[in-house]
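Trying the structure run again after the queue cleared.
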Amino acid sequence: MAATGKSYLRKIDISDVEPGMVLEDVFNDEGVLLISSQVEVTSPGQIEVLKKRGVSAVYINIRDGVDVPIEKLKKQELLKREEEYYLELSRAKEVHQSTLEATKNTLHAVRTGRPFTAGEIEIAGEKIVSSILRNPDALLSLAQIKGYDEYTYVHSVNVGILLTSVAKAMQYNKNALLEVGIGGLLHDIGKMRIPEHILNKAGKYTEDEFNVMKRHPQLGIDILRYSRTITDVSRLIVYEHHERFNGKGYPRGITGSQISEAGVMAAVADVYDAMTTDRVYRPAWTPQRALATIFQGCDVEFPRRIVEFFTRHLGIYPVGSFVRLGTGELGVVVRVEKGKILAPDILVLYSPDGIRYSEPREYKLAELQTESNRKKYSIESSLNPKDFNVKISDYIQKSPFD
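Done. Tokens:
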């Protein structure tokens, strides 16, 4: 619970009031003033009287009296953020679904030869931005739901969400968030002009087929040419998401700072989501393996600054990772607290003996890790959930308290 605009006042629940605290003006829940000057609480009986008179919250003067213990404040703040996350998660499901529909409609229209119109995509981009501004983690967790059915559409939505979320962490303003989000949703629009027998090929491309596929960024720009509302930043994402730091990307083979920051961010998001998604020709990589592989490309394929920021934002073990703990238990990462990327929240599904628990157990590793048992409650490795018959989406679309 944060202090108010007056830095020496803090609003707290009546249940948190303790003797030694100094109360400011006290009102009951109907707005009736009960105390109009500073009063020091000297006994639990005073607190009970206020509760009986309909007081649910008070302002305490932390300059002149006792404050709420710092550990209690930290726990309350953590619970508040958790409550906000799960509240937004229910709203984010609708955003995720409507964005998928808008992306399918737009890309399908282009595939069937109709002129590009930006309306549905722009509305979807605005919904993504609004969700991420309310809570930066909820919608991002839904982007970890993977599957190769309708890959191009789902992939486009995931990249749009990833880009917007990372840009929010990089303190982009609202308009800039919308630009990168729309760019992410449209980054593969040029593929709608690639022949389907090449686009959907399960095996390795021939040289000629790959040359055709490499045209899709330019084809994307051609499709957007007459749009008056798609910004230059969004267009750069479409054009540059396959460029590489060392100049070995396409379509132009530009290098280093010639690639826009938005283009680099899109390149990392595009590769990460592609690596962590099942395809007909290869199984998905674990998030940890994908991030480690991208990190190996620092200063070669991608600038280190963007990769490090991306990794810090997602966490070493991103939401959706299936992991083994030092206890031997297995579980799914459901939340990554910023600044605690090695100690996320886990829903534990399997015992150390490999027995599936009848109900998942929630572990908050940041709270469980003390000096004496830090190794025990640390993540040892990332595993493939399919090897254990675990469907990740069953656990990251709902609150562990449901």
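Residues 26 and 304 are 54 Å apart (CA to CA). Worth checking whether this holds up in the mutant runs.
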